C-alpha cells in the first residue's frame, strides 16, 4: 500500500447484514433516517481497496457503499 492510496471506510460486519437483521427485527421496511442512523453507528475499519475486495470475496458478496447506503439498500433489499 502506498501512502497516496486512499482508504475505504468498510463496515464490519457488512452493512447489508446489519440492515437485513434490523429490518427483520423491526418487521417492516427501514426508513431512510433509520438506515443512515444505523450506518453512522456501525463499527467500521479503514482499509485499502484490495483488502476490501478480499473481504467481499470471502463473504461472497459486495457490501453496499456507506456513502450511498440508502440508494443501494433499496436495490439490495429486493433480493431478501
What report would you give on this structure?
Helices cover 51% and strands 12% of the residues. The protein is an alpha+beta fold. It has one domain.
Features:
two-stranded antiparallel ribbon; Addiction module component; alpha+beta; 2 strands; single chain; 80 residues
In short:
The protein is of the alpha+beta class and 80 residues long. Helices cover 51% and strands 12% of the residues.
List the helices and strands and how they pair.
Layout lengths: L6 E5 L3 H12 L5 H10 L2 E5 H11 L9 H8 L4
Antiparallel strand pairs: 1-2
Question: Would you list the SSEs in sequence order as H and E?
Answer: EHHEHH
Strand content: 5-15%
Radius of gyration: 13 Å
**N→C terminal distance:** 36 Å
Number of helices: 4
Overall tally of structural domains: 1
Query: What's the overall geometry?
Result: globular
Amino acid at each position: 500500500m502506498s501512502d497516496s492510496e486512499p482508504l475505504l471506510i468498510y463496515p464490519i460486519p457488512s452493512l447489508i447484514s446489519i440492515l437485513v437483521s434490523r429490518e427483520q427485527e423491526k418487521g417492516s421496511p427501514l426508513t431512510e433516517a433509520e438506515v443512515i442512523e444505523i450506518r453512522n453507528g456501525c463499527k467500521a475499519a479503514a482499509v485499502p481497496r484490495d483488502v476490501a475486495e478480499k473481504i467481499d470475496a470471502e463473504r461472497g458478496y459486495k457490501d453496499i457503499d456507506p456513502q450511498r447506503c440508502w440508494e443501494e439498500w433499496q436495490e439490495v433489499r429486493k433480493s431478501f
